[in-house]
Amino acid sequence: NTPLLILGAAFSSEERARLEAAHSASFSAAPDAVSELSEATRATIKAIAFKGHTPLNAATMDLLPNLGLIANYGVGYDAINVTDASARGIKVTNTPDVLNDDVADIAVGMMIAQSRNMVAGDAWVRSGTWAGGENLPLNRKMSGSSVGIVGLGRIGRDIADRLAAFKMDIHYHARSEKETPNWTYHADVVSLATAVDYLVIALVGGKETEKYVSAEAIAALGPRGVVINISRGSTIDEDALIKALADGTIAGAGLDVFNDEPKIDERFYDLKTAILQPHQGSGTVETRRAMAELQLANVSAHLAGKDLLTPVN
Ligand code: 8YV
């Protein structure tokens, strides 16, 4: 009798052990492996603890007749088909807020690293080029410049708050105008991109935001433009982004997310003006621990018949 299904090869052994210590659990590495569990085992499963980005939809849910909860590890639950879940009376939870600081930190970190050419600077020192008497070419001032945030949710706001301390002129686009200090609202992304040097994407993933930052918006950013993406690879026209970086029609990018992670488009590897990160926005010991705890708290609440902490549907 295993009321919990731990689903995802992405769980560390420590995370898995903590879930198993709390609840009797089965394990599947991926949604398409759930069918390998016996029918009797599947019938005992009431909750899934999910981690990863492999689609989880009706085909898997229908193998688990008593499933009442899918608890996602992560704020973004675009891998889970919430429509399928709701239609079956299955609740979905995520792990919002606990990762806002880290994701905002890495967005700002990539902005500084890109502007100040820090990755090349490190290589410059190690290779002895500096010792040989050559100075790194001058780079670009970030403080005091203009930034456009695409998506002013909890993470977008934390990024904007940080950048306000960098004396930046803050613009944003969201579905509707929000209450802000003195930030400028734009009804569409092209208008936003036209107005700023840095475009930071902080959207939710999923179908509705696919290629939300279009080729036209990337072009509108112009030759001083820098794209920062900490959301999902799907939220920008990635092909257009690669072309713009290769052709130098924008100045650069800082990217923590890509399509087809981790086997990303190999053209990225040669783009010298892009800083590339391995989807590590929430990847600190402290935050991953908080995410795991919130996921477990949702699972425990469901199994005890109590209110969920962070419901999605
Ligand atoms: C991942 C994330 O969930 O929270 C999110 O939406 O993108 C990350 O924190 C994490 O990589 C685990 O898959």
Automatic annotation (TrEMBL):
Alphabetical list of Pfam families matching this protein: 2-Hacid_dh (PF00389), 2-Hacid_dh_C (PF02826)
Residue intervals of the D-isomer specific 2-hydroxyacid dehydrogenase catalytic domain: 12-313
MF term (GO), any: glyoxylate reductase (NADPH) activity
Domain of life: Bacteria
Class in the EC hierarchy, top level: oxidoreductase
First and last residue of the signal peptide: none
Keyword Transcription regulation annotated: no
EC number: 1.1.1.29
GO CC terms: cytosol
All residue ranges annotated as the D-isomer specific 2-hydroxyacid dehydrogenase NAD-binding domain in the record: 108-281
Keywords: NAD, NADP, Oxidoreductase
Family, as annotated: Belongs to the D-isomer specific 2-hydroxyacid dehydrogenase family.
Name of this protein: Glycerate dehydrogenase
Source organism: Pacificibacter marinus
